[in-house]
Design brief:
The chain is of the alpha/beta class. Helices cover 37% and strands 15% of the residues. The strands form 4 sheets. The protein has a 7-stranded mixed sheet with strand order 4-12-11-10-7-5-6, with helices on both faces. Strands 1-2-3-15 form a 4-stranded mixed sheet. Strands 13-14-17-16 form a 4-stranded antiparallel sheet. Helix 5 runs antiparallel to helix 11, helix 8 packs parallel to helix 9 and helix 13 packs across helix 14. The longest helix has 22 residues. The chain is globular and about 60 Å long.
């Protein structure tokens, strides 16, 4: 036995190792590995990859075309203007709540929610159940027939609106909703000129393109007739910091100098989304709403990204500044990923369209209405607004801790689960760190976090996950961002 043990422990000391010796050595080696793996990773000079929170879901096997084949199909058959966020794109084939899965079954934390579109979670069981139940009964009809879903949904949605915002037009996208809102403003007031903000984004239709305040979203063609862009009330990059009154003075100058003095309306996001998660300066909306109404216009709040409790402190983003708009547009999270959008206004403004017929083939169809109603119920039942406030506050605090550690982080901003992290080469000059943002984003993807980015220069991380995002998810995201920044 001692000779056998010697040969097992010191195989090089004998000319050959018996089959029994090899088996014993294998068992000893496997036992050691199992024992060591029971301990947490030990910190070394090389940073360890943060561990994603546990999640009890096994993705279904994928049997479709490979990522390379899908890329080839996209290049051949889809618009050449389409883009992807990563150098090496991710192919997503399944989603569950705040997580996404690629074709190989790898799990990712979704910090962008399909561009702020998945509100209560990917494939939320309550939303899926409502969709499937309605889908089995009736997939489509239009408003020329009666159907309970659209009528009940309109009541349930307007019950959540302040003031006299009691009439709904259902459409299919945010661009379409903003188009209709502008048309309503012009019909109701009899005026043509629209006031907008630089850095804004309201859609890419021929009508909404003119409202956008970034050249990246404007096709080189005639557009923007009758649209006037005011100085953006950006607390970080704007010339007046967080002084809403000084920015509002620029709007007064715009009305008196660039319009006939009478306007159709003013449209603004309450937190700019595509522009890089930019909250409007404090006190800006009350001052501007007052002067717009005095100039005969109506005020439109674009809630496409900020609505349904995402900002935490309020159900609607415009409530953060204590105003009530005349028209509200909403999309994206309203249907948790389904093509659904809405325009909500007062009965008086709605009446301005009644002199002609109005019809929308798909707007508010039974399946989308059932999904929209389910989203409202889930937001209430699961207390998602309060959840966004709590998790958002924790995430904001941790991101600011990261800002203190990394000079490249120029600004951390936002509220609830609508946050932005802006990277700059120099905190004084605020030169955008565009390449660095792309590098960090790629590195975070490789570690399991899918981020969004925005801003005119593409140097702002847009953190807008599904609203079921947890404290543990927030910690994982920050730890991964920290590790990625350390690699720069």
């Amino acid at each position: 036995m001692p000779g056998l043990l010697s040969r097992v422990l010191h195989p090089g000391s004998a000319s050959s190792v018996s089959t029994l010796g090899r088996g014993l050595l294998s068992q000893v080696s496997d036992g050691c590995r199992a024992f060591l793996s029971s301990f947490p990773a030990v910190e070394t000079k090389e940073a360890t990859t943060p561990r994603m929170p546990d999640f009890a879901h096994t993705p279904a096997p994928y049997s479709g075309p490979s990522a390379e084949e899908v890329i080839a199909l996209r290049k051949q058959y889809l618009s050449p203007s389409l883009f992807w966020h990563f150098k090496k794109p991710v192919m997503i084939v399944e989603g569950k709540m705040q997580y996404l899965f690629d074709e190989k079954g790898r799990r990712y934390l979704d910090a962008f929610a399909g561009i702020v579109t998945v509100s209560v979670g990917h494939c939320h069981p309550a939303v899926n159940e409502a969709i499937n139940k309605q889908n089995a009964l009736l997939q489509h009809t239009t408003t020329i027939y009666l159907n309970n879903q659209i009528a009940e949904y309109a009541k349930e949605l307007t019950d959540r609106m302040p003031g006299n915002l009691k009439v709904v037009y259902f459409v299919n996208s945010g661009s379409e909703a903003n188009d209709m809102a502008i048309m309503l403003a012009r019909l109701y007031t009899g005026n043509w000129d629209m006031l907008c903000l630089r850095n804004a984004y309201h859609g890419m239709s021929i009508g909404t393109m003119g409202t956008c305040g970034q050249h990246t979203w404007k096709q080189p063609m005639p557009q923007g007739f009758g649209y006037h862009h005011a100085l953006n009330p950006d607390p970080y990059r704007g010339p007046y910091g967080d002084d809403g009154a000084r920015y509002a003075a620029d709007m007064a100058d715009l009305i008196s100098g660039a319009t006939p003095g009478r306007v159709a309306g003013f449209i603004a996001e309450t937190i700019q989304g595509v522009g890089g998660t930019v909250p409007l300066a404090t006190g800006y909306l009350p001052a501007v709403y007052k002067m717009v109404r005095e100039a005969g216009g109506v005020c439109i709040a674009d809630e496409v990204q900020t609505g349904f409790g995402r900002t935490g402190g309020h159900y609607w983003g415009f409530q953060r500044q204590g105003v009530i708009p005349d028209i509200v547009t909403m999309a994206k999270g309203i249907g948790n990923g389904l093509p659904l959008a809405a325009v909500v206004t007062t009965p008086e403004i709605a009446a301005s369209m009644a002199s002609r017929l109005h019809f929308n083939t798909y707007g508010g169809n039974p399946v989308c209405s059932a999904a929209g109603r389910a989203v409202l119920r889930v937001v209430d039942k699961e207390h998602r607004q309060a959840h966004c406030a709590a998790v958002g506050e924790h995430l904001l605090r941790r991101l600011r801790g990261l800002q203190a550690k990394h000079d490249i982080i120029g600004d951390v901003r936002g509220t609830g689960l609508m946050l932005g992290v802006e990277l700059v080469k120099n905190r004084t000059t605020k030169e955008p760190a565009k390449a660095e943002t792309a590098a960090v984003m790629e590195s975070m993807k490789d570690m399991g976090v899918l981020m969004g980015k925005g801003g005119l220069h593409g140097n702002v991380f847009r953190i807008k996950p599904p609203m079921c995002f947890s404290h543990q998810d927030a910690d994982f995201l920050v730890d991964v961002m920290d590790a990625a920044l350390c690699k720069l």
